[in-house]
Amino acid sequence: MKQYWGFSSFRSKQEEIIGSLLNGQDTVALLPTGGGKSICFQVPALVNDGICIVVSPLVALMTDQVTGLKNKGIKALSLLGGVSFNELTTLLDNATYGNYKFLYLSPERLQQEIIQNAIKQMNVNYIAVDEAHCISQWGNDFRPAYKNIQVLRGLHPLVPIIALTATATPEVLEDTISELKLELPKVFKDSFLRRNLSYQVLEENDKLYRIERILKNNKESAIVYVRSRASAIEISNQLNSFGISSTFYHGGVSATDKDNRLAAWKNMEVSTMVATNAFGMGIDHPNVRFVIHAQLPESLESYFQEAGRAGRDGKMAKAVLLHNAYDKVLVKKQFVDSLASPTDLKKVYKTLHNYFHIPYGEGEFTEHSFSFSEFCQTYKLNSLITYNGLNTLDRLGIVQLSKQFGRKSMLRFVISSELLLSYFEKDMTASVVGKTILRLYGGIFETPTPVNLELVSKKSGQEISVIISVLEKMEREELLDLTLHVTDASLTFLVPREDDKTINVVAKEVEALNKKKKEQVAAVINYVENNEVCKSIQLVNYFGENNAERCGICSVCLIVHSSVDKFKVKLISEKIIEALKDKQMSSREISEKLTFTEEKILNVLQLLIASEVIQINSKNEYFI
């Protein structure tokens, strides 16, 4: 620790975890985000001869850790995508014979026979499985490829395995231990309580206004999480117009732009990153003062991990969750109402075989080009339920979807809007197609944007073949960047066609998974609605920690503290009631009218609501 990291002491649980591995025991490290999990396997791997195999689902994390180790003079390498066969062979030879200490790879990479054979020849000292909850079907980030990690146990049966995660309920923890075939593991679990992190849950109709107020005077880093790519672009642009330096990050941004934007944010060239949940995994940036969620998350597991990126330097930070009445409807619609039931799966599964003309008892291991939108259109299927159903069939090993599944064509105009409109004047078909795209997709000049060709066809009245021809011509003339996905994916049937019989075998598992998803969404809604119990206590209780004390700094605890000064509460209450006698007002209007701090006014408003002195209408206006 002293030699390579410059630390003279360990954080909580680190030394015990390291001792367990050095004693040759299978080990589970359940530490909160920022708890220093990587040290737990890196130190013992350096102590002993041999190489440590690290399985991680996160390219950013692998790259970050390999770079960090190399900077310390430690030999480490990673097997990332886009490597040729010759390069892969060279890397594996280096890992086997080059005195390397760490080999990082994804669970998908581990499935390759050439890699398994090479690992078998290596002098492996430890096997580390990061984000280990991904192996559990109950985990929020389940990845089927994680099921094959146990092949490492067969290759090196005597090598200790360490499973590391920051988000595991007791149920997920038990399943993870079972799936990894850990032998009497020692489990180390640190408290999930973050003393320096204030969890704020605020009901807000005008979220952009609230985000601006929170970040206006912030001199350090912030993250704003949004649900869609369009929202990321829009809010980032709005913040810049308010004088808050910002950039955006989502799955459609090119790898180069992602790297540049991440570097600009980490180097404090911009203060705020507006992003979808594609951002943050494996990003170690200590001085994030605010993490703001502009929409409800799908689970407390994902929320806890994302919120936990604030205050990793140990200084005070805030995790702010903004919500309104519509958010609760939306999160249920997105993640509960669209779940595919066993009946839905039977319909999708049978229809798939009819679509590809596969007879009963046949079809195993046959691969087919697959257009999702055409499939749904042909059979008049609900697209969201069908999409979720196909992903469930993939998760259960009944079909296999290629990585391109769900991808849309990507498009970005690379000339100014004035030049583009001038071009449209000379080409009527291009004008119809182009203007339809501009109406449908905001931000298409700033970043590559996923475009639904079927939707463009429907709105413009042009055949898809015509639209493709127009776009390809505009690409040749260097008016736009284009990545076409005419068919969404390839689909492989992994079992013979047996219709209902196939689904009946997994029906109970499907119902259990759907039940779990409903419980996760219900837990999120309960979290935002429960203003009686400390927010920190609510979160750690969810992860099985039942002896936590009130944090004193969350939105619930602050209301309790405000009630201590009864005179001030009484005075603010009187002023609010007096202001509301004239008309119904939003919290912003009340704050602008009165001289008290906004935080105190919001606290007293909640107290007045709770005591039924005032009420709030659908427009988020208060009235007596």
Task: Please outline what is shown here.
With 624 residues, the chain is an alpha/beta fold. The chain folds into five domains: 14-189, P-loop containing nucleotide triphosphate hydrolases (Rossmann fold), CATH 3.40.50; 197-323 and 530-542, Rossmann fold (3-Layer(aba) Sandwich), CATH 3.40.50.300; 334-406 and 489-519, Arc Repressor Mutant, subunit A, CATH 1.10.10; 409-483; 563-623, Arc Repressor Mutant, subunit A, CATH 1.10.10.
Would you give an account of this structure?
- With 624 residues, the chain is α/β, with parallel strands linked by helices.
- Helix content is 46%, strand content 15%.
- A 7-stranded parallel sheet has the order 3-4-2-5-6-1-7, with helices on both faces. A 6-stranded parallel sheet has the order 8-13-12-9-11-10, sandwiched between helices.
- Helix 23 packs across helix 26 and helix 25 crosses helix 26 (598-610).
- It is globular.
- The relative contact order is 0.09.
CATH fold-level name of the largest domain: Rossmann fold
Domain module count:
5
- CATH superfamily membership of the largest domain: P-loop containing nucleotide triphosphate hydrolases
Query: Roughly how many Å apart are the termini?
Result: 62 Å
Mean pLDDT metric: 88
